[in-house]
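Hi, here's the filled form for the chain we discussed.

Project: internal
Contact: R.S.
Residues: 379
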Amino acid sequence: MSDPLLSVENLKTQFFTEAGTVRAVDGISFEVYEGEIVGLVGESGAGKSVASMSLLRLVESPGEIVAGEITYKGETIFGLEEGPDGELRERSEMLSNEEIRTRIRGNEIAVIFQDPMESLNPVFTVGGQLREFIELNRDLPEDEARAEAIDMLREVGIPDPEERYEEYPHQFSGGMRQRVLIAMALACEPSLIIADEPTTALDVTVEGQIIDLVDELQAKYGTSFIWVTHDMGVVAEICDRVNVMYLGEIVEQSPVDELFYETKHPYTEALLESIPRPDRTVGELDPIEGVMPEAINPPSGCRFHPRCPDAKEVCQRVHPDNRVVDRADGHPHRAACVKHDAFDVGYDGSRPLDNLADTGDESDDQLTARTNGGGDDGE
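And the returned structure, exactly as it came back:
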């Protein structure tokens, strides 16, 4: 197998607040290879967006990347090393802020944000914003950049692109605005696009159109994607491999088909069970019990254990790393769950926990205390 386009190792991003340190991203590792779409999926608060913004060093104060290594095409976007005094410092080969801004952002790695109305300036025409983006990143004269902008609007399915070029964002529908952001992302011919929940604000019909468009463009240009979402249906439709995040950690990694048919982590299984399916008749939805704890004070052991129907006492004590528990067509299937033989910590002989997911009789105060890790100093 060829070297990955992007490699992330033990990435940690924290926010330093008056209430304490929020461990938003807590030691995740994954790769993206050329021409593939990799999913980053989980509930709100799992750390998906912070992880994706960390890849371009876009995390602002009070947030800070405190550990890990990010490598893109063999260059170090972020990396630390221990100095002679024992303190961590930035590695000498790490790209500077200026190099990240001028060489990487937009040109090599582009971003499609969740809300196009927040990303497009309402007082400038759509075409003018797209043209300026191309001018700055590809160093083209204004007339050539304008022609390229019109071509890109046509490429993403904007009707009458010459006329729509002169219109403002409010004159576009939500789906059309999202197409404009896709055009911006593709305009500089990047090798990798980070799509941060780009279809969340769209209705299901338009969402399907956008997914089909991305699929077509990805096949045409060979662009790699990191697709950030909470929607497992979108994951099944578009992704090649999937990383499932929970409370700052990746708890399962596998090829997309293996994830759906041979699920290895109870959290992933709970996500799948909470989705209505056309091939099943159910009286009501089956949501995940409880709420996600605060990242400022995560539970001991497995962070999912307060909500897990399979949790046992050992899950409170052992914090599982992400290990290979199976293989699918030669590809590793990883999971951070001690019930698998790869851990050998006595799961089978451990006493089951009497979780809310099993009993349903826990009070709101008990639930709040336990999901916050049993402490009283969380947010």
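Let me know if anything looks off before we file it.
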